[in-house]
Each structure stands twice: as C-alpha cells, then as structure tokens.
Amino acid sequence: YHRMLHRCLAQIQGLFEVSPFDHFSGQGSLGVVAVGCAHAKLLQAMEGRASNLQILGLTSVWPLPERKLTRWLRGLERVLVLEEGGPFVEEGLTALAQRAGLELSISGRHDRVIPEEGELGEEDIATALARLDPAYQPPERAPAPRAMPSKVPLCEDCPYRPTFEALLRAIGRHGGRERHIVVGETGCMVRANLPPFELFDVKYGLGSGLGLALGLALSGTPEHIIALLGDSSFFHSDINALPQAQQLGLPLVVVILDNGTTALTGGQPHPGSPVDELGRPRACTDLAAVIRGYGLEPRLCSPEDVPAMEAAFDEALEAQDLRLIIVRGPCPKYTRQRTA
C-alpha cells in the first residue's frame, strides 16, 4: 500500500507539472509566489501597476511541482511567498532550492516578512512587496473597513429569529439567563449575539459547540448547558462529540438549526443540503437519521409552529438528561436564489 501511495503521488505531481491553472507573468530577478487566492489578492493590491517582478500564481501545492518550480527559481535573487495559513509552500520552496543548489533568499510567513498569523490583507502584501523591491511604490488607497458578515443582523424572514425568541422565553420560564449557559459557534447563528438576542455565553469556532458544551456539563457547573449548533457545522465536526454525549447522558440541551445550507459564507452545500454546488437537486443525508444512528431520538420542530417549539424547549430544559431538538427551516435567502 505504501508503495502504491508513492506511485499515486508521483502521478499527481506529474499532472501538477503541466497544470494549465498556474499563472506566470512579469520579468526580473525578484519573484513572488502567490498561492491560491493570494494571487488574486496580490493583483488587487498592485492594481495593475507594472513592476520588475516575476509572479507565479501557484494553484497546486502538494505534492509541489518541483521541476516547474526549479526552472522558475533559476535566475532569481529573492523570492517572496504569499500564502494563507502557515509557511507550507515557503518551507517547501526553501528545501527545494537547497537541494537544487540555488543561491537565493526566500521570505514569507516564516521570517515574518508577512505576518505569522491572521488572514493575508492588501496592506500586508504591499508592505512585503516594498521590502522585496525597495523601488516598488504601493498605490495609495483610503483604509477600508473589513467586511464583517457576523455583525450584520439576521434577515427579517430568517427562521432563526422565531427560534431564538422562543428559546429566550423558555429560558426565562426556567430561571432566567443566570441559570443557563448558552454555547454557540460560527455560522449565521453567531448573529444571535447581536441585539436584541445577545444570546451567547461561550463561542469558539466552527464545529466546536457540542464539544465545548459537553466539557461544561462534565465540569459540574450548576447552570443548565444549551448548545446551539448549525447543520453545516454539525456535519463538519460537532458530530465527533455526539457518541460521548450519548454515552454520558448528561443534562444538556442540543438545538440544531437546520437551514439546509452554509448561509453565512455564501450558501455552500453540505451533506444535508438538498442541492449540490451547481444548485441541482440531489438526495441529501437526513440529519435526524444520522442522530438516530447514535441511539438518540431528536425532536423535530418548525420555526413556523412557535407553540410546539416552545413546548419542546420547555420539556428539554426540565429534563435531567441529554435532549436534542432539530429546528428545520430553509434559509429564505438561498431558497429565493434557487427559485429565481
């Protein structure tokens, strides 16, 4: 198997060597490798200005197309690597240049020519280009605030609105906010932390909600723990905590908000979505059936039936074991787009 894996990697590398998706432009002794979306960011930061740079927009990074990269590196004196995340390509290029006996400096996240952490921004790119080429003059632009979708209120017809309102009323009937800890996560539901709901007590990242809630329940805290999960984040990684939650049976209320899509980031499908990436209908994974496979019986609710939803919340908050509620209501924004 190991030998077969190496053969497959070699075949893939051969395809990457002749990939038509890599972009070469410019000339000179200074080079920039812009990986994936960083290529578009680089072009936007430069605003079409001519420069004495050779630019490689690299689309495939593992395995690296070493022959192609070695040919490109020859004759260069300094190279800047722009990539999101860690210095993966930067370190690979450094090792490749050393093996090929090329004498050039390679900079990027590793030596902090661009910031070690965080998303790559136009200002970061402009600063790094100026360090690579002192003659480079970045275009002047007024500082623009970063778009923050999580700070935009929920749509008026969003099914999350009546859900959060019903949950808050149920919490009020069972001792109020001070008797409960609400755990949320990334997704459209993060807007539940905006007024008027201001719902979350704890929030970390995508797919972390159930694990965090389970840890809080295990800690013995007297508050009743409520975990709000999205359907896409459930399939992403919340599902990994479900077996232990079922096994322990702790007093924990899990509310899964099933809107059939990944709404906050653009409506991308997930296994439970009724359409694929091109908007074509398809068979989807039944979220409730998945949960039943773990020996649990979720209660299904609709945000259009508020009394039934409140009754489900009341029953779950009164229980002293694990309760799961699926609130199923399609995202109206992407439903409208599919039917337009």
What is the strand and helix layout of this fold?
Elements: H1 2-17, E1 23-26, E2 30-35, H2 38-46, E3 53-58, H3 66-73, E4 78-82, H4 88-99, E5 105-107, H5 122-132, H6 160-173, E6 180-184, E7 202-203, H7 209-218, E8 224-230, H8 231-236, H9 242-248, E9 252-258, H10 287-292, E10 299-301, H11 306-318, E11 322-328, H12 332-339
Parallel strand pairs: 2-3, 2-4, 4-5, 6-7, 6-8, 8-9, 9-11, 10-11
Antiparallel strand pairs: 1-3
Structure at a glance:
The chain is α/β, with parallel strands linked by helices and 340 residues long.
Task: Give an account of the 3D structure.
The protein is 35% helix and 16% strand. The strands form two sheets. The chain has a six-stranded parallel beta sheet with strand order 7-6-8-9-11-10, sandwiched between helices. The chain has a five-stranded mixed beta sheet with strand order 1-3-2-4-5, with helices on both faces. It is an alpha/beta fold and 340 residues long. The protein starts with a helix and ends with a helix. It has two domains: 15-132, 3-Layer(aba) Sandwich (Rossmann fold); 150-339, Thiamin diphosphate (ThDP)-binding fold, Pyr/PP domains (Rossmann fold). The protein has twelve helices and eleven strands. It has helices spanning 2-17, 38-46, 66-73, 88-99, 122-132, 160-173, 209-218, 231-236, 242-248, 287-292, 306-318, 332-339, and strands spanning 23-26, 30-35, 53-58, 78-82, 105-107, 180-184, 202-203, 224-230, 252-258, 299-301, 322-328. The longest helix is centred in the N-terminal third of the chain and has 16 residues, at 2-17.
